[in-house]
Amino acid sequence: MTHPAGAVPSVRVRAPGKVNIVLRIGALQDDGYHDLATAFQALSIYEYVTATPAPDFSVEVTGTVALDRVPTDGRNIAIRAARLLARETGYSGGAHLRIEKHVPVTGGMGGGSADAAATLVACDALWGTNIGRDRLVGIARELGADVPFALVGGTAVGTGRGDVLSPALATGQFEWVLAISDAGLSTPEVYAELDEHRARHRHDIAPAPAAPSVPNEALQALRAGDAHMLAEVLSNDLQAAALHLAPGLGRVLELGEGNGALAGVVSGSGPTVAFLAATQDAAIGLQVALSAAGLVAVRAHGPVPGARIES
Ligand code: C5P
């Protein structure tokens, strides 16, 4: 906590965005969610949340990405996170939350989930509620399927809605280049498109897997820290649906794979495309080539830790 004499105390937390290395989607469940299995990796592209004491809850949003789709009222996931933590702990005050966004908004990289995770850690420290990781993860789960992973970070396998996590051993560092699109894709719409696609083509494509799982080859590649092996297994069941809704992503994938990427994959529900590079130099070359083609390209490495208080 920052608290120089006379100043208002504040807590600043950073939380990472993520890529889904593998995303296998099962059937739609009665609760409106799909059963899934994914391998998440947290990347060095961060959201920052600074919490200061206040009688009520408010949010202010700044950052380097398009912000027009971010609500600044009670619908904002950071405010929902702070309110839920207060309710769960019996805390009667509030907080002002200042969010600095660098993860693309509705981009498939878990930016909103990172805001929620950062807010939980920041308010827990600011208010001195100190409820511990397990209870924080439980609250995170209520806020969204990807919020627990933004708390935990690293590399992990997610099952259930994506919110039941087990750590995956990953060695070394993977180099990623992210092609960011301003357009944004709605996660529920992409899932609905997948369901419609599966219904339309039920005679000629594989059905939703009954028990989706992350293939062993992906876990082996992560354990070995081998980007070439990992490139072979990058896959996303939502990719065809995202490409259907945003056909321009096909060209983005081709551009990256033609300019040195080992492989590319739509991240989560898109429209961000994540490219895996063999080395940092290859990643720099790829970033330059994508930028020259008029795309917004950002480099990041993974894995990195989950939501942490900034020292
Ligand atoms: O949990 P979150 O708010 O991030 O999920 C957004 C939407 O994505 C859900 O309302 C649902 O439509 C879809 N979703 C899903 N199955 C999952 C995760 C998300 O259908 N496992």
Characterization of this structure:
The chain is of the alpha+beta class. It is globular and about 60 Å long. 48% of the residues are buried. The protein has ten helices and twelve strands. Strands 1, 2, 3, 4, 5, 6, 8 and 12 form an eight-stranded mixed beta sheet that branches. Helix 1 crosses helix 3. Cytidine-5'-monophosphate (C5P) binds next to strand 2 and helix 5. The site of cytidine-5'-monophosphate has 12 residues, from strand 2 and helix 5.
Can I get a quick summary?
The chain has 311 residues and is an alpha+beta fold. The protein contains ten helices and twelve strands.
Notable characteristics:
311 residues, alpha+beta, 8-stranded mixed β-sheet, 12 strands, 34% helix, binds cytidine-5'-monophosphate
- Shape summary: globular
Query: What are the bound molecules?
Result: cytidine-5'-monophosphate
Q: Report the C-alpha radius of gyration, rounded.
A: 19 Å
- Largest sheet entry: 8 strands, mixed
Distance between the termini: 8 Å
Tell me, rounded to a whole number, the average pLDDT: 95
Number of strands: 12
Number of helices: 10
In terms of DSSP E residues, the strand content is: 25-35%
Helix percent reads 25-40%
Give helix and strand order, one letter per element, not per position.
EEEHEHHHEEEHHHEHHEEHEE
- The unreliable regions are none
- Derived structural class: alpha+beta
In terms of topology, how is this protein built?
Layout lengths: L10 E18 L5 E21 L2 E7 L13 H13 L4 E8 L9 H16 L6 H11 L3 H6 L2 E5 L4 E4 L6 E7 L6 H14 L15 H9 L2 H7 L1 E2 L2 H7 L3 H9 L5 E4 L6 E5 L2 H13 L3 E7 L5 E2 L2
Parallel strand pairs: 1-8, 3-4
Antiparallel strand pairs: 1-2, 1-12, 2-4, 2-5, 5-6, 7-10, 7-11, 9-10
